[in-house]
TrEMBL record:
NAD(+) binds at residues 11-30, 93-96, 178-180, 204-206, 222. 2 residues (Tyr-55 and Arg-58) present in a large hydrophobic pocket are probably involved in substrate specificity. They are important for desuccinylation activity, but dispensable for deacetylation activity. Residues 1-238 form the Deacetylase sirtuin-type domain. Zn(2+) binds at C119, C122, C138, C141. It comes from Candidatus Viadribacter manganicus. This is NAD-dependent protein deacylase. Its cofactor is Zn(2+). InterPro entries: DHS-like_NAD/FAD-binding_dom, NAD-dep_sirtuin_deacylases, Sirtuin, Sirtuin_cat_small_dom_sf, Sirtuin_class_III, Ssirtuin_cat_dom. GO terms for molecular function: histone deacetylase activity, NAD-dependent; NAD+ binding; protein-malonyllysine demalonylase activity; protein-succinyllysine desuccinylase activity; zinc ion binding. It is found in: Cytoplasm. Belongs to the sirtuin family. Class III subfamily. It catalyses: N(6)-succinyl-L-lysyl-[protein] + NAD(+) + H2O = 2''-O-succinyl-ADP-D-ribose + nicotinamide + L-lysyl-[protein]; N(6)-acetyl-L-lysyl-[protein] + NAD(+) + H2O = 2''-O-acetyl-ADP-D-ribose + nicotinamide + L-lysyl-[protein]. Keywords: Cytoplasm, Metal-binding, NAD, Transferase, Zinc. The active site is at H111.
Length: 238
């Protein structure tokens, strides 16, 4: 089997055709909101109601969208590889659940998940797909005023980094899909792969900020490029 262990990093571009805004494309989220006001601890402490409302708006948008062909193809790849003794790690920067709804068996959400709420005081975590408000109580510690979306903000440490680097360092192939390569540590994964002698490929609408770091590249819409790539991988694997 070629590339028995594949590490896939995805970004907002993989969910764009499902109807979720990316961040840095024209008209993207950071062209409409100030990142430091809605995606930082400082922003939350300055105005928790505004930050919670930002995520309530995004969560409601997420409720109305469906996985696209790229999510479905990656779910198929992960399933087929698992059946044949291989492993596909899907590590996403996205906080939506479209990989799971597209059939992925396991997903590493390094920037958290918008459909979960976390208590700022005790860390208590629970699925929550309603609107969060500042005076909500925590189911674990009972304190009010500390519930926040389970999303990693700028200045905070992304989640599952040990698991990520373990899977990345033992991969035979690193594929980055739908990310601009702007935000670390995710943007540094391609360099870590190269340093470990792992072949790298990006699939993106256009060359990303670190396009030159990749051995291979396929440009175009994720809903077209990803299924085509997966079909080739499955055909080659025999
Ligand atoms: N198919 C493939 N790629 C696409 C598509 C598409 N249909 N549409 C957009 N893209 C590409 C863009 O060309 C861009 O390179 O997806 C990328 C999206 O980049 P960003 O908007 O910067 O999103 P992302 O890279 O995921 O951002 C990383 O930044 O703000 C933080 O936490 C946030 O997780 C996010 C992180
Ligand atoms: Zn609590």
């Amino acid at each position: 089997m070629i590339a028995k262990r594949i590490f896939i990093l995805t970004g907002a571009g993989v969910s764009a055709e499902s109807g979720l805004s990316t961040f840095r494309d024209t008209g993207g989220i950071w062209s409409r909101y100030k990142l430091e006001e809605v995606a930082s601890i400082q922003g939350y402490e300055n105005n928790p109601a505004f930050v919670l409302e930002f995520y309530n708006m995004r969560r409601n948008t997420h409720a109305g969208v469906e996985p696209n062909e790229a999510h479905i193809a990656l779910g198929q790849l992960q399933t087929i590889w698992a059946e044949r003794g291989g492993a596909v790690t899907i590590c996403t920067q996205n906080v939506d659940n479209l990989h799971e709804r597209g059939g992925a068996l396991s997903v590493i959400h390094m920037h958290g998940e918008i459909a979960k709420a976390r208590c700022h005081d005790c860390g208590g975590l629970a699925p929550y797909d309603g609107d969060l408000s500042p005076n909500m109580g925590c189911g674990a510690c009972g304190r009010t005023g500390g519930m926040r979306p389970h999303v990693v903000w700028f200045g905070e440490t992304p989640l599952y980094m040990d698991e990520i680097y373990e899977a990345l360092s033992s991969a035979d192939l690193f594929v980055s899909i739908g990310t601009s390569g702007n935000v670390y540590p995710a943007a540094g994964f391609v360099s870590a792969a190269r340093a470990a002698g792992i072949p790298t490929m990006e699939i993106n609408l256009e060359p990303s900020g670190n396009a030159e770091a990749f051995d291979l590249a396929r440009y175009g819409k994720a809903s077209e490029q990803v299924p085509a790539w997966v079909a080739e991988m499955v055909a080659i694997a025999g």
